[in-house]
Specification:
With 354 residues, the chain is mainly beta. The protein is built from 5 helices and 23 strands. It starts with a helix and ends in a 9-residue tail after the last strand. The N terminus is likely disordered.
């Protein structure tokens, strides 16, 4: 069978299987899985992060990792920087039982912090869902650290080394949490279009991540020419390089809020009323973000409206990062076997809840 046919067959067989679905919750600006359990029956709330691949727990002193009946310390010491270096983790790796809802992973490699700087308070760690190659070189001894998805597949728990992410926009009232994380399956019940697949980009460094080639337009006017970037569910923003950021700021009339610690763009109600569609062209498909999808949720006390588009400062060779505001509007599938990423609109793509 030709490679393309084989890939399509695998994809079609995978569609509709119900291997394991975990509810997604929200804490602050982050999407998390709650109640992640180890063999000591510790429970942890972990950020869902497609921008990294190392899973670790125990960030809070009041909820430290405890060894259980299946705990086995290793000699692996790991160093990772997140967010352009704003967060630094130095951890020792254990092998332990890790349970996500009804998915029990045996001998999963998980990190326990030795040093941790800059991590958001109130959260316990990260569920690393990036490609396995992101774990290459993070251990000081050069050893390989399998990811959660790899172990789920290799242990026969899921049928395919793939997962789908569905985030509900923040202000939508949704029974059963604020989204779904599906391992080995696609939740077709929330889709309103077919899946469109593209290969992971070949451009470095985006090809080390879940990276795609894309261009971005505002009101049909290009603001970012074709380049490569990444899909990063652990980011709360849509980040673009300086020239694209300036073009977007100029087109929207937004200004930087000098009192905001994150230096977000703000607009007035009149400017919001005139806000146009922001389009991300991936492959042959345009993924449009309505005006409502381009803003953070508003409260009655807000004097301004905050935009989710910000400048990518520490680019590292990337043209953009599509964070959770993009995930809130499109169902995204990550297939480790075929190295493809799939996109589909869902029931909240055109939501006006923000």
């Amino acid at each position: 069978m030709p490679d393309l046919q084989r890939t399509k067959a695998l994809r079609d067989n995978w569609l509709g299987k119900r291997d394991g679905t975990v509810f997604v919750e929200m804490q602050g600006f982050y999407r998390i899985v709650t109640g992640v359990v180890t063999s000591s029956e510790n429970t942890f709330n972990l950020i869902i992060d497609t921008g990294s691949s190392y899973t670790w727990v125990g960030a809070r002193e009041e909820n430290e990792y405890m060894e259980g009946y299946a705990s086995h310390p290793t000699s692996q010491i790991v160093n990772i920087h997140y967010g352009g270096g704003m967060v630094h983790l130095r951890a020792i790796t254990y092998r332990d039982l890790l349970v996500l809802d009804d998915l029990a992973i045996h001998s999963q490699e998980i990190g326990i912090p030795i040093e941790l700087v800059g991590f958001p308070p109130g959260l316990d760690g990260i569920l690393g869902l990036g490609p396995s190659r992101l774990n290459d070189g993070i251990a000081e001894d050069g050893s390989t650290i399998p990811t959660v998805v790899e172990n789920l597949f290799n242990q026969g728990i899921i049928s395919y080394a793939a997962f789908g992410i569905y985030f509900v926009p923040r202000n939508v009232q949704n029974i059963g949490g604020t989204g779904l994380l599906s391992f080995g399956t696609i939740d077709t019940s929330v889709l309103t279009s077919g899946m469109e697949y593209v290969p992971v980009t070949q451009s470095f460094p985006a090809n080390e991540f879940w990276g795609v080639d894309a261009s971005i337009s505002y009101e049909n006017t290009p603001i970012l020419l074709p380049t490569s970037g990444i899909l990063d569910s652990g980011s709360c923003r849509i980040l673009v390089v300086d020239n694209a950021f300036k073009a977007y700021q100029s087109a929207t009339g937004a200004v930087i809020d000098s009192f905001d610690s994150n230096r977000r763009l703000i607009i007035t109600q009149d400017q919001y009323d005139n806000l146009q569609t922001l389009s991300v062209l991936i492959g042959n498909q345009s993924y449009d973000l309505s005006p409502n999808a381009q803003i953070y949720p508003r409260t009655s006390s807000d004097q301004h409206i905050f935009l989710v588009v910000q400048k990518l400062t520490a680019t590292g060779g990337l043209g953009f990062k599509l964070g959770s505001p993009f995930f809130e509007r499109y169902y995204i599938v990550f297939n480790s076997t075929s190295l493809e990423i799939g996109f589909a609109s869902h029931i909240h793509t055109q939501s006006t809840s923000n």
